[in-house]
Amino acid sequence: MSERASQEQPEFRPYHHPAAGWGAARSVTEFLVRERELVDGPRAIMRMNHENGGFDCPGCAWPDDTKGLHLDICENGIKHVTWEMTRKRVGAEFFAAHTVAELSEWSDFELEDQGRLTEPLRYDPETDRYVPVSWPEAFAIFGRAMAELDSPDQASFYTSGRLGNEATFLYQLMARELGTNNLPDCSNMCHEASGRALQAALGTGKGTVDLKDWEMTDALFIMGVNAASNAPRMLTSLAEAYRRGAQIVHINPLVEAAATRTIIPHDFARMATFKATRTSTLNVQPRIGGDMALLRGMAKAVFEEAEHDPKAVDAEFVERYTTGFDAYRALCEATPWAEIERQSGVSRAVITAAARVYSEADRSIFSWCLGITQHEHGVDTVREIVNLLLLRGNLGREGAGPSPVRGHSNVQGNRTCGIDHRPDEAFLDRLAEVCGIEPPRAHGLDTIGTIEAMHRGEVKVFVGMGGNFALAAPDTPHTFAALRECELTVQVSTKLNRSHLVHGKQALILPCLGRTEKDHQRGGLQATSVEDSMSMVHLSRGMKRPASPHLLSEPAIIAGLAAAALPGSRTPWQHYVEDYDRIRDTMAQVLDGFEDFNRRVRLPLGFRIRQPARELVFHTPSGRAEFSTAALPDVVPAAGVLALGTMRSHDQWNTTIYSDDDRYRGIKNLRTLIFMNAEDMRERGIGEFDRVDITSTARDGSTRTLNRYQAIPYDIPRGCAAGYMPEMNALCAIGDYSTQSDQPIMKHVSVTVEPSA
Ligand SMILES: Nc1nc2c(c(=O)[nH]1)N[C@H]1C(S)=C(S)[C@@H](COP(=O)(O)OP(=O)(O)OC[C@H]3O[C@@H](n4cnc5c(=O)[nH]c(N)nc54)[C@H](O)[C@@H]3O)O[C@H]1N2
Ligand SMILES: Nc1nc2c(c(=O)[nH]1)N[C@H]1C(S)=C(S)[C@@H](COP(=O)(O)OP(=O)(O)OC[C@H]3O[C@@H](n4cnc5c(=O)[nH]c(N)nc54)[C@H](O)[C@@H]3O)O[C@H]1N2
Ligand SMILES: [Mo]
C-alpha cells in the first residue's frame, strides 16, 4: 500500500472549539465543492433520514430522530452520501489506460477519488488490466469457479455492513443453498464481542434501549467511542441530556471532542449564535484495556455503599430476574483496590466518583463501541457492563439498559437477517422449511478464519459484498498474500479500492447501485430496509439517477451469481428481484419479529424488532439474566512497551480517507502519526513531529514495523498510544485475535517506539 504523501506541512494545534457547529459546516462546504456536488448534494441531503420516503444515511447506525426532525443529519453523513453521489466516473477507458501493477502504486485516496464504477469488469492476466465483461458472462465466470470446487466450503462470502436487509437475506440464502456457512462480515472486527456477551448474559445479541430511553435517562456512561466523528448524531442526544440535567460520564483514554462541548448538528439558531452545550459532567481516562477493572471498581464501590445504604443495590430485581449475584459480589469484594487501580490506571477516588454518579441515578444507560470490544477480553468487559447494570436493575425499564453503538448503517440488520458464521439451529430449521433448502449445520469461517484458510489453499473463491476486505482486515501483507492465493475474487463495489488490486488468479469487479440511487425493477421502483443500532427497521428509497445505466442493484447481482452457481435451484431468484416485497414476504416467515413485514416496514417510522430482554424475558440457559465472574486480565504493558489503539480520524470512513486532517484532535496534513504521552516521548528522546519507528510484537513473538511515523504529544495515559487504521493494520498480527470473540485485537497492540535512524 502506498501512502498519500501530503504536500502540505503537518500541523498540530489542540482543538478548543465545540464539536460540530461552524467547523463542521465549513468542512462540509469544502467537501461539496471538491466533489463538485453543489447542485444535487444539498437537495439529496435534505431527503436523508426523512420519515416517509427518503433514503437512510449510508453512514453510521445511529437511529433517526423519531419526532419527525426534518434535518437529522451531520457533517460526516453529508460527506458520506456526497462521496457516493460524486459526478466522477471510472470507466473502461480508465482501466484500458492503467495496468493493475501501475494502479497498485496509487494511494487509497487516489483510487477512490476516481469516482463511481460504471460497468462490470474482468481481470485479464495477459495485459494485467481490468476489461469490460457482460453481466451474464461475469455471472458465468463465478458459476464455473464454484463448479470447480471440491466443496462449497472452499468459498467464502464477506459482507460489509451497508448491505440492505433484502439483499442480505438473499446473500445468506445463496451461501447456504450452495452449502456453506462461510459468512465472514465486518462485525467479526467490530461488535462480535458485544453480541456474544449480551447473548450469554441476557439472551439477546443486541442492546435493549432506544432513543426514547436516551431522552429519559438520568446518567449516561459513554465508553470507548469517538462520537463526534463516528456517531455525530449522538451529540444531539448528549447535549439534550446535559440540558435537562442528566449526568454524562465519558470513559476513554483520550478526551474526545464529544466529551466536552458541542453545537448540535442541526441546530442552526445555536450555530448562528455560537452557543455550545456541554456534553460531559465527568471524564475518566483509563489506560487502554483498563475498562474492565474500572467497571469492577465501580461495582465494588456500589457494594461498599450498600453496606450503609441497602438501596444502593436493587435486591428485588436481583432476586427476581438474575442468577450468579452472590458469586459476583464475592468476586468484587475479593478484588483489592490496589489491583483495580493498577489495572484500570484510574485512582480509587475517581472510580468512586463515577460509581456515585451511577448509584445516585435512578436510570442509567451504558453505551460503548470499539474501545471496549476490540480487545482480548472484550466479551468479559461487555459482561462486566451488564453486571453493573443488573446490580441496580437498570434493565427492562424506561431510561435504562445497555446500548452498544454499531458501526456501519446496517451491520445490525445483516446479523438479524442471517449473516452469521455460527447460525443457530432454530434459524436454520426455519430457513430449511420455508425456503426448501438443506442448509449446512457446521459452523463456517469468520474474517480471520477465511484469511487463514486462503493461505492453506482451503478457500479458493472469495466474494466481497461491499467493503474493502484487503485493507480492513489485520496484518495487511499477510491478508494481501492470502487474497492472491485465491482462484477467483469477486468484489461488489461502488468505487475502486485496494481490494480490486489485490486479487485472485481470476477477478471480477461488479459495480452496484448506491443507497442514494433509484432502484428500478420489473415491479417498479424498489426500496430496501435497514435496521439501526436500536433495532428500528425502516425503508430506504434512493432518489438519484444511477451513476451509470449498467449498474445492477445488490439483490440483482446476488440473484445473478446464485442462478449461475446453482443451476438446479428451486429458489425463485429472478422472481424475488422483480419485486422486493416478495423477498420480504419470505423473510417474514423465516425471521423472528418480522411478521407482517411488508405492512409494518411502511409505517412512518418503520417498526421496532421485539427485544425479549427488554421485556425481562431471558433466552439464557437459566432463563434469567446471568452475572459473570471473569478474572481481571493483566493489561499493564511491560517496561518500555506501549499499548497502541488503532482508530479512525475525523475525516475518514473506515478504509475511505477523505483528507489527511483530524480536526477535533487538532491535526492537519498528517496520517502517519502516533499519539503519545509527553512523558513517554521525553523518556525516549522523542520531540513533537519527530520521526519514529513503531514495532509491534505479536503473541507468537513475530514483529512488524512501520517506519518514519511522526510522534504527537497528546493527553493520553502513560503507557498508551494511538494512531490510525487502516494504515496501522500492518502492525496487527493475524494470530492476535481474542480467544473470547475471535475479534482481531485492534485496540491493544503491544509496540515499542524509537526515534528513526
Ligand atoms: N465518520 C465515520 N463514522 C463512522 C466510521 C468511520 O470510519 N467514519 N466507522 C463506523 C464503524 S464501521 C464503526 S465500528 C464505528 C466505530 O466507532 P468508534 O468506536 O468510535 O471507532 P474508533 O475510531 O476505532 O474509536 C475508538 C474510540 O475508542 C477509544 N479507545 C481506544 N482504546 C480504548 C480502551 O481501551 N478503552 C476505552 N474506554 N476507549 C478506548 C479511542 O480513544 C476512540 O475514542 O463508527 C462508525 N461510524
Ligand atoms: N486496525 C483496525 N482495523 C479495523 C478497525 C479498527 O478499528 N482498527 N475497524 C474494523 C471495523 S469496525 C470495520 S467495520 C472494518 C470495515 O471494513 P469494510 O466494511 O470492509 O470497509 P469499508 O472501508 O467500510 O468499505 C469501503 C468500500 O465499500 C464500498 N461501498 C461503499 N458503498 C457501497 C454500497 O452501497 N454497496 C457496495 N456493495 N459497496 C459499497 C466501496 O467500494 C468502498 O471502497 O474495518 C475493520 N478494521
Ligand atoms: Mo465497524
TrEMBL record:
Keywords: 4Fe-4S, Iron, Iron-sulfur, Metal-binding, Molybdenum, Oxidoreductase
Record organism: Saccharopolyspora kobensis
Keyword 4Fe-4S: yes
Domain Molybdopterin oxidoreductase: 116-491
Limits of the Molybdopterin dinucleotide-binding domain: 642-727
Family stated for the protein in its record: Belongs to the prokaryotic molybdopterin-containing oxidoreductase family.
Any single Gene Ontology cellular-component annotation: membrane
PANTHER family: PROTEIN YDEP (PTHR43105:SF4), RESPIRATORY NITRATE REDUCTASE (PTHR43105)
Entries under NCBIfam families matching the protein: Fdhalpha-like
Gene Ontology terms, MF aspect: 4 iron, 4 sulfur cluster binding; formate dehydrogenase (NAD+) activity; molybdenum ion binding; molybdopterin cofactor binding
The UniProt record lists the keyword Magnesium: no
Record Pfam families: Molybdopterin (PF00384), Molydop_binding (PF01568)
Required cofactor(s): [4Fe-4S] cluster; Mo-bis(molybdopterin guanine dinucleotide)
Name assigned to this protein: Oxidoreductase alpha (Molybdopterin) subunit
CDD domains reported for this sequence: MopB_CT_ydeP (cd02787), MopB_ydeP (cd02767)
